[in-house]
Each structure stands twice: as structure tokens, then as C-alpha cells.
Amino acid sequence: MTKIRIVNWLLTRRCNLKCDYCAIVKNYASMPTEYPKMSHYLLNEMTTDDVISGLTKFKEHNPDAFHIFYGGEPMLRRDLPDIINFCNQEDIHYTIISNNTPEIKPMIKNLFEKTDEVKGFTASIDPVIFDYEGNDSDRVRKSLEGIDSLLEIKQHVNDVVAEITVMNENLRHLHRLVNHLTLLGINSDITFIDISKSPYYDFSNITDQNLLVRQSAQLADQFQKLNDGKYNIHMKDLLLRGIWDTLPSNMDCKIDENLHNVSVDADGTIRLCLRIRGVHSPKLVNLKNLLDSTGRISPIAHSAIKKDKEKYCKLCNHTCHIMSKHIDANDTSPDDLVHLDRRK
Questions:
Q1: How confident is the model at residue 36 (pLDDT cuts 50, 70, 90)?
Q2: Which of 9, 63, 129, 317 has the greatest number of C-beta atoms within 10 Å?
Q3: pLDDT of residue 296
Q4: Is 240's pLDDT higher than 80?
Q5: Where are the domains of the chain?
Q6: 181 vs 44: CA distance, rounded Å
């Protein structure tokens, strides 16, 4: 039976930031006519019951599925403690991805106070911190402020992760940042900037191909340093090799053949993937009908994903799909997705 290995949740499209590369919180001019207006998402988010019901169905389908709670900014959902408590109670594997900025800190504190534990916490810390030179953009600010915050969060969470998004302009600092984070006891999850290849790629706001990292001597040098050193890098042996093979943006996830990775939008509809909303998928598939009464992925979902992928996908470099494909191909434990100390 086909198993969903990773579930990406856009719990909200609301955010306190407007980073230059993110399209999730923006109502951009080229949005396809098939989409509702962005205000629809802001006013029509899943309820707490919707999320918990979805988590229950995913657990029945695959108890080992790993859940990633994205936004927008997920801390802006007041019911996040209820969602996390449910995950803890039901032994559901997860991490929360937050921008971890000062204005979000009170909400993080509230989360710790209202939950028995938080198993996984991820924040964006990009190599841009070494090149900021007074730049006060949201992308720079959240990276600079995020390291100190992650050190505080380490007191409450075992699985603390820095999600590093590398651009061509800051590739030279990748090894330096990973080394710095490792010395601080923070794990690194390395990803590379992707671009919006059409209006249907509504996760990224970037269209400049010059920002993409390509296979090069400089990249090979950075990867060699990371491979040779003892660093806390999530799934290093798999991901560095997988990233190299798919750069600059050429990965075929093959979810049309095997739906190992699912993305849930803020309104409870099912996206084609995290990168692409699709048309048939959100129109026909939602949390209530993704899985049938036996816990299997419904034929409607398979058909909608297949149609959208054939029509709207122009490939990407989403590392989450590399991970879920690996887990699926080897039918391995979700422990592989937990960012433990892996200095080797």
C-alpha cells in the first residue's frame, strides 16, 4: 500500500514578516484565475477540530508519518498548543517551523507553558548573516535574531534545527555557518533556494535564475568540507548527494506515481505539493476525502495529483521530497527524520 511519509501543513498564511523570497503571504498580480483571492485563506483557515481530525486520519493511515507545521507563521495560531498536545498524546512525529523573531517570542513562551513538551522546533538561519552589512530586511533580521533565540529554545526542546536556505550569493558561507551552528549545539537542515517557474509555483516569490545554486567547483568545495568534518547535518550522506544531483532545480519527486509526500493548505485543501498549489488537487481533494474509509489514499486524490503534476510541475529542488522518497523506498523508521546529533 502506498504510504504518505511526510505531511506538510500550512497551518496559516498569516505572518508577521514579508520575506522577499516568500509568496505564501502575498497576493501577487500573476495569481492564476483559478485561485480564490488571498483574503479567502486569511478568513478560512482550518479549525482546531479540522487539524486534529486530519492528524487522526494520517495516523491511522501511517503511524510513522512525519508532520511539518509551517505557515505563514504557525505561532500565530492560538490553538497551536492544543495541536501539539494532541501530537504528543498520540505519539505523532513533528517539528514546528517558525521565523522565531522577537515579536513571536511571547507566543513561543506560551506554547512551552501550555504543552507538556515540544518535540521539534525549526527556525530559518541563513548564510546571509555573514553578509548583512546593515541590511535590515526581514530575511536578514530573522537570521541574525534567530541564533540567540534557538539557544534559548534548546533549554526546552531536544530537536532544535536551523533550516539553512542557500543562494548563489551566499554559498561561500555555507560551511562557515554549519560549523558555527554545530559549535552552538544546533542542528543544520540544508536546502537551496528554488524559483517560481510559473504562477502556479505559489510558495516562492523568486524568478531570478541567477540566484540559483548550480553544480560548480565552489559548491563541490563547500560540500567536501561538510563531508569531511564532524557537523550536525540532518541526513548528511543522503541529502548532500541528493541536492547535488537535483541542482539547480531539476528534481522529479514522482508523487504522481507514489504519493509519499502530501501538503495541506491553510483552508484544509490538498495542494499538489508544498511548492505548487495546483488546480485539480485543491478543487477536488481535502482533509476529509484524501483518505478513504479503509485508510487508503482515495482514487480521486491520486487522479487529481497526477493531472496537476503533468500540467503544472516543471520540477524543483525541494529537499523534503528527497527525504520522503528515501524513507518510502527503504521503509525505514521516522527516526531518520529527527534531527539528532549526527557528528560523523
A1: very low
A2: 9
A3: 93
A4: yes
A5: 6-337
A6: 38
Residue tagged 502506498 (cell numbers): 2
CA distance 143 to 163: 10
Report the 3 state secondary structure along 253-317: CCCCCCCCEEEECCCCEEECCCCCCCCHHHHHCECCCCECCCCCECHHHHHHHHHHHHHHCCCEC
Determine contact, residues 313/276, Cβ cutoff 8 Å: yes
Residue 342 CB partners (closer than 8 Å, separation 6+): 187, 232, 233, 234, 236
Identity of residue 164: I
Residue for cell digits 519527486? Answer: 253
Quick one: which of 147, 90, 87 has its CA closest to 119? Answer: 87
DSSP 14: -
* Grid coordinates given for 201: 509555483
* pLDDT exceeds 60 at position 341: no
**Tens digits of per-residue pLDDT, 118-168?**
999 998 887 766 666 556 666 666 666 777 788 889 888 988 999 998 989
The grid coordinates listed for 185 are 549545539
Residue in this structure with the C-alpha cell 512551552, named with its chain if needed: 112
**What is the CATH T-level fold of the domain 6-337, as seen in this structure?**
TIM Barrel (3.20.20)
Taking each helix axis as running N to C, give the angle between helix 105-114 and helix 138-153, from 0 to 180 degrees, rounded to the nearest 10: 30
SS3 of residue 218 by DSSP: helix
In whole angstroms, give the CA distance from residue 170 to residue 177.
10
Q: Which of 89, 72, 243 is nearest to 165 (CA)?
A: 243
322 backbone dihedrals φ, ψ, rounded to 5°: -60, -40
Strands (E), the chain: 6-10, 66-70, 93-98, 120-124, 159-166, 187-192, 261-264, 270-271
Mean pLDDT of the region 259-285 = 95
pTM, entire model: 0.90
Contact 7, 51 (CB under 8 A): no
